Amino acid sequence: MPITAVDKDTDALTLTVTAEFPVPVRRLWDAYMDPRQLEKFWGPPSYPATFTRHDAYPGGLTTYFMTGPEGDTPGGYWEWLSVEAPSSFSVLDGFLGEDGEPNRDMPQIRMEFSFEPTETGSRMTTTSFFASAAELEQLSAMGMEEGMRQAMGQIDDVVADLQAFAAGGVTAAEPLDDTRLRVTRVIRGSVEQVWRAHEDPALVSRWMLGPDGWTMPVCETSVEPGSSYRYEWASDDGAQRFGFAGEVLEAHAPYRLVSTEQMVGAEGIPDAAQMAGVTRNEMTLTPVEDGTLLTLVIVYPDREAREMAVATGMVDGMETSYARLESAVLAA
């Protein structure tokens, strides 16, 4: 158990938890920045967490739900206040309502996480600030302290895995629920470089090509909310052509880009590939030790549409493109 001290101060209205880990500060920090890792320990073992959004930058939002043994799915959120990598970050922590939006009628607490090196690894101090003694007691009665003990007891196994989440791994995809698919890849390059590689059409047309044997005759990019974009690809033999078009919904450079997407102008493409309908694509870029963690959450109309899209080999094509981004664009 990594927790070394728990201090509940009823005068200062704080709960402080101190824990130590046998890994460098940066390794522990990255575990909190990466939703794939964070969800392996944020919820207690009986209530594992699934992170549907994780914008680890000031002004960003994180949302997650925990699945209980009876199938219940209580949700929570973080509103990010500050980020000082890799020494500290602070968030407002609260509960989601049944509609998936922050429930302002439930308690909201400020949490500050600080990280410092020790002779044997690193120390993390988590301080929760409460608005009143009643609020502190309410959340204590709900099992907050025990939940934190159980959750942090899982961190050691996560941070000990140095390979699963590092650069050099291929693009991975995993369903989050019936309609959402999360695609992740650590890309060797800065957040600013990866953002520009999605913004500049001269760069996009060099790497976003999928498997060999395709060109990109149309590349109209945009990162301005309310504007549209369009990409079209053509096979070298001229037998196939297709494209994607959509509207930019949100843009918070260089961290988050949200847009709609729909296949257009398909010629010679199997019908199954065209049945995904309109999706919502949420891309988040997060700096990690090895480069940039690119997280793309794709929201499909339904489970069938998601499975059809995955069955086309979409993820393999994305891996080819991201590998080309590293070798042909960022390494140039």
Automatic annotation (TrEMBL):
InterPro entries xref list: ASHA1/2-like_C, START-like_dom_sf
Domain (Activator of Hsp90 ATPase homologue 1/2-like C-terminal) ranges: 23-159, 190-328
Pfam families: AHSA1
Family the UniProt entry places it in: Belongs to the AHA1 family.
Annotated protein name in UniProt: Activator of Hsp90 ATPase homologue 1/2-like C-terminal domain-containing protein
